[in-house]
Amino acid sequence: MFFFLLAVSVIPLVSIPQIFAHGDEDHGEAKPQTSVKQNVETRTAVTDDFETMLKTPLLEPDKEIGGKLFLTAHETNEPIGNAKIILLVEGEDGEKTEIAVNSTDNPGVYRLIIPPIPESTVKLSAKINHSGKDVVVSFGAAEIKSALIESSAENTSWARSALLGLGTIGLLTLLGFVAFLLFRNFRQKPQTIEQETVSV
What we know:
Strand content: 35-45%
Helix content: 25-40%
Shape: elongated
Largest sheet: 9 strands, antiparallel
Oligomer: single chain
């Protein structure tokens, strides 16, 4: 039991990804990272100058998708405003589509709209121009597919788990009832009635 509790407490600490580094920490050559939470995709990329995070809903085919891009300085993690940014979407045929990324009133926060893209696998990257520096950051590959397929698979998995849970509860209830009957019969002693013969 002790080793089980130790493993449960250590595993979450090991599995938490480090998305951003701060201050004087050693960033190293970080690869693009992608995470999905509550139907929102978060993609991060780090260079010697910038840390960039692209946040969008799940990319679905033939659907316009709005998103945000967050830009901070690599060394200080301070938000960078007024940068010129273009999002690049490279299709399977190698053709690149340029998407304007617009600044907002909040420094380091930018907005963009990804036009409808057919179901495919694309490569996402961004061209950043700030303080005389031109940098291209890569967010890696993005699979654009219908969310209905994923939703159907999730629903099927959920239904299977629910049926399995109900079956387990039913079986345990039945076993408990049988055990109760056996226990009651074991505790119950037969009553004997002795009849006395009275002689007159």
